[in-house]
Amino acid sequence: MDPAGYLAHLRRELGAFEACLAGDLTVTVQHCGGWTLYDLADHLGGQNLWAAAAVTEQRGDYQAPAAPRDPAALAAWFRGTGDVLLAALDTDPAAPAWTIAPPPTVGFWQRRRCLETLVHRWDAEHALGIGSRLDPALAADGVAEVIDTMAPRQVRLGRTSAPPHAVRLIATDVPERWTLGPGDPVVTLRGTAASLLLLLWGRLAAGDPAISYDGRAELARAVLSGALVP
Known about the structure:
- The protein is α+β, with helices and mostly antiparallel strands.
- The chain has helices spanning 3-20, 37-56, 71-89, 106-127, 136-156, 193-200, 217-224, and strands at 166-171, 177-180, 185-191, 212-215.
- Strands 2-1-3-4 form a 4-stranded mixed sheet.
- Strand 1 and strand 2 form a beta hairpin.
- Helix 1 runs antiparallel to helix 3 (71-89), helix 2 (37-56) packs antiparallel against helix 4 (106-127) and helix 5 (136-156) packs parallel to helix 6.
């Protein structure tokens, strides 16, 4: 996806997340370690500022202030963090930046922040009982990011073991397929790009009916049980 595409998606995802802040800020966000919606907003907004500093100040030690508790102030604060991030990312994707994984460029953050916001927007809507739609092409890019960036980083940091088997993932709504793990795939998983993304991020259970298996499903579940993402 080109930089303009990432920025357009990011702007929409930030706006959709902000809209959730009109809901109950005390509701628990299921897949985020017991966080409330307020906690998730504090995290996502703070990370917006952190990623902006990684671009504009070339550092990864920025510490964002806590988000305000007042609902109206929180929404305004979150919108401001998004504005800061979008301004920082609106530049040459090849420009240097501090990053958590290769490549050390602005383009890394254009992709990473777009996909991070996509997943957390789903988290917020899910917590509020709002039906979510994930753009298929963007979700497919998110699947690719888990395989080419996030899972290898988790292994490199010692947070999980390398997958012992190869798993093939095939999207049923876009012409994309991927292989996670070494060697020939022992099992094939099929689902929409959104379902596969949510599966890899632990938002869907391995046995969810949105995912079908062809081959040794137990080996796929062994791979998916690892900490593929932070």
